[in-house]
Structure formats: C-alpha cells, structure tokens
Amino acid sequence: MKAVIVIPARWASTRFPGKPLAMIAGTSLIQRVYERAKLARRANAIFVATDDKRIADHVASFGGKIVQPKGDFQSGTDRIAAALNLLGGEFDQVINVQGDEPLIDSESIDALVESLQTTKVDMATLACPIESDEELRSRDIVKVVMALDGKALYFSRAPLAGALRHIGVYGYQTRVLRALARLEPSPLERAESLEQLRALQNGFRIQVLHTPKPHLGIDRPEDVLRVEQELAKHG
Phi/psi at 70 (nearest 5 deg)? Predict the structure, then answer.
C-alpha cells in the first residue's frame, strides 16, 4: 500500500493573509511544514496543494512538489480530494497535513499511516493534552472527546469535559476521502465550522491517536513569536 502527504496552502486567510509565506526564524511557514512532513518514513510522496502562483513558485524554489487543483473549495477536505484526483489512482491513503503546523512531528504522521494501513478505520487524526484553562476556552483551539475505544465522538470549538486538544492532521483511506468530497456539508459541520463533523455525522469512524509532542499552529500573526520561542527551546 502507498500513502501520500498533501499539504493544502492558500493565500487568502481572514486572520492572516499570505500566511504560508510568513517567515519563522528565517524560514517560511510552508517550507517548515514541508520539511517536517518529509521526515515521515511511511509516506511515499509529498505535495503542496495550492492554486496561488506566489506559493507555488516559493515551494518550487526549495525543491518541493506542487499539485494545483482549480476551483473554489468549501473545505480542506474538498481541496485535498481534488488534489488527489490530479495525482492519479496509485495512493491508498492520504495524509492531510495542515499548512500551518510548523512543528508537526514526523513520527505522528507515520503513526497515522500505520493506523490506516493496519486497521479498518476510515480516518485517523491526532490529539494532545490541553495544558491550560485558556486553551480549553479558546475558540481557536478545537477539542475532541472520544469513546473508550479511541474513536472520536465529537469535535467542538467550545469547552468540552474530558476533551483533548485536536491537532488538525487527518489521515484518510482514499475511498473515504472521495466519498466525503461527494457529500454536502452536514448540519453539524456548518454549525461548528469543522469539516471533520461531516465525516462523523455520515457514520465514518475516526481513530484518535495521542501524541505528547508540541504542536503549536499558526492562526494569527502573533503566533509566529510563540513558535519561534518553541523552536529555540528545542534547538
């Protein structure tokens, strides 16, 4: 079986326009994400999915591979599915690594691939402990609660009892990704603005894998300093 990593990257962002090319300690955000993802050993290929020439040219400048799906997409799931169609039918699993996760852990990506390839789960994602009340209350931080077997029960931006902090990295069986892209956004997906709820509300199973690794995403310009401090801390 073969797995591909696809990193969606778009220029438009309400909170941080041009975010993929934001510099973090001298290196662009998208290059940091790409290089971290490239360390994963179980993935067979990696692409950045973008329709923006500035991002595409920059990715090409550091030797990254690009796929350019065209159109207006309602969610990252739809963009990834369109990218997969351009890549052909050779991949059995797709890992969606968000383009704003510069500290993504390659071992966690490998764990997602392994989960998809060795079980019958439809999707897999990551979660880590919530470290403060501020994180629990923040609507920028998505929370997940799980069943006893580790499957996701619900995702929300609101505080949830017993929740973990969701890390927005998804693994899909290829057939599942294509099925999701054919479905309309679900009521819960619209209510929470969380595309993973489309999968849950349509009966797909999402395995949640735990990781203690730091995953500081970039949502706003002020997050750059926090990530630079974390990079300095870990060398």
Answer: -105, 150
